[in-house]
Amino acid sequence: IVVEDLEVYITGAADIIGVTKKLRSPRNKDPRALIDHVFRQILQYKKSNQGAAHPTGGAFSGGNNSTSDGGMTRVVRVMGGNDGSSDLTPFNNNGPWELVLQLDYASSSITGSLSLGGNSDMFDAQLVGVQGMIDRTRDVPLEWSVYVVTRDMQNLQYVFFADLSGHTLRGQCSCQAIGHNADFMYLTTH
Fold first, then answer.
1. Which of 10, 150, 161, 177 could form a disulfide with 31 if both were Cys (CB 3.0 to 4.6 A apart)?
2. Where are the alpha helices (DSSP H) in the chain?
3. How far is 11 from 38, CA to CA, in rounded Å?
4. Using omega within 30 degrees of 0 as the cis cutoff, is the peptide bond preceding 55 cis?
5. pTM for this structure?
6. Angle between the 3-17 and 31-48 helix axes, to the nearest 10 degrees?
């Protein structure tokens, strides 16, 4: 890329995001002034939001307000539907269901909820909490569990071990009480 081309790209981008209207002429055509203005705005935003709660993102919510290097939170949402397009493991007969995980990298904790939307021979529809931890020293750093109440009022613990890569949550789940082990691959929704 030639310097002149770079200047054209910068001024064009500045026009698109409305920066040129905020600067007086001739600064509104100077690529350095435009970049300076954008970086100062970003810095001001970051300073004003330090310590403030971070929004949890949209329906990805693989909404990524995080980095895996700590200090931030990522909300991951998985929708298990009955349409055959998603992995329903281990609640194959309770669709549609929804799993929401809040990954807090600062505290290495996982919280969230699992909502089973349909009744099955084993489980009625229910909403249960999720608890877990993040251990980035392991190949599969995410571990969480849920206690699901069976139709005969037993609490069954399902334990999940997973890795999140992009929009794919892949791992294994087990329920020792009934000898159930299964691999899963969930696609997070946006």
1. 10
2. 3-17, 31-48
3. 12
4. no
5. 0.62
6. 50
